Amino acid sequence: MKFLIITFSKCFLNYDTPSSVRGEGIKGTLSVTATYNGQAVTGTDLLMGQGRNLSITTAYTNWNYIESEEWYDENGTRLATGGSYTYTLKDDQEHQLIFRLTNQSGVVIEKTFHIIPNENELTSSLPDPDCEDPSLWTTNVDGFQRGTAVIDGFSQPFIERKREASEGGLLCWGQERFDISQTVRGLKLGKYEQGASVIATQQGKNGEAAKNYVKDVYLYADGAHTAVSSLDGVPGYFVVDFYVGDDGQVTFGAKNMTDQNYGYYGKGMKLFAIDNFSFIYKGPDVLASVLSDMREQVAEVKKDEVTSGLYETLKALDRKADDVNTAVLYQRALGEVRELQVHYKEYMSVYHIYKEYVETNNVDDGNLKTALAAFEAAGSPEEFFQAFDCLCKAWKEYHPRAEKTMDVTYWLPDGGALTPSEDAGMYDYFTRWMTDVEEGNYRILAIDGSDAARGDAVVRI
Predict the structure, then answer these.
(1) How many Cα atoms occupy the beta-carbon half-sphere of 244 within 13 Å?
(2) Which of 52, 68, 175, 370 has the largest CB neighbor count within 10 A?
(3) CA–CA dist 214, 269 (Å, integer)
(4) Total-model pTM
(5) Distance between CA 15 and CA 111 in Å, rounded?
């Protein structure tokens, strides 16, 4: 049995993950999981930013009589013992991180990582890249707190904001508008990449259903942004590319543009959480093709697709300059266009319905008239979305509420016609009622002032 003749002099076996060694017909396997900035990393050559952490966990099977699990640097200095280790890059030099698993016969399985400093990673320059302290962030609403739940893909703690299932005896549906941000200064002119792990989900839903009603939630940096939504309890990783100009600063974070408390119970964004920011400098230049594409996108925007204020901003953009500062201006303008166009036609249609009703019926309601005027004057997406929320609230405050089951077909536009959405449910902005499909017909599930779980009015169509 030749595998038993191994002497006590150490035998080193250096394998890529997973690593295996045979002895007496048994296959021992070492596997390694490495995480950096919240993301799984593969391979043995790893780029790291100074001050950042690399977390490594090892596991083995069919490898008995373990003598030791040890971590070493390139100089042979033992750093730690045990199957897990967090390595911090403290300088701008290359290093080796070595894990050795030794059994009592002196046989060693070894795994080596080559740590390469990345001078362009600036993650450690962020005030709170690991999202550990909500007080270091600027927010426009209360409720952001330290999250400590064990979530695969998040470290602990992280920052979260929840909406409880009920408040004041009534069911809650989602989160109101919010913005959470930080500002970094002293940056070099050029292109950057920001990444983050985000949960934006409908809790309690299975699979893709957890993402269906999460809308208008963005990870952003300056004017650039990307929409975010996730499965229940499963963080998504999102990336935003953006430019920084001569001012050397960027405001970044996440925002919810619309009040999601008007969705039916279970379909609003009940949980938002964020962690693991990364921040990487990509270079000082902007490609001519990038600016050309930006200009084409601006040229395609029609006057009736955005607010008048934003349209004037688009017209004033420099059509000839090809530097990074120009890219920043286009980035901001196009970011507003994209945010606005998601709901612009929909909200304008509602506005015209309300305005026509007020003018036709000589409505003399100060709050409603003020809300209409504020909506007309809105310029930026933030102003536009906020004005729309105020307009809808003024509208429903003006109209009576149903106190008992009643036929309200006459009150709906177009003779009671409602258009179903893809998930067999919809929200009607004219009435501010959430509806659901029942065998081809519609039933009002909730109106303002009612418990969302019961129907207070029935539409007979």
Answers:
(1) 26
(2) 175
(3) 5
(4) 0.79
(5) 6
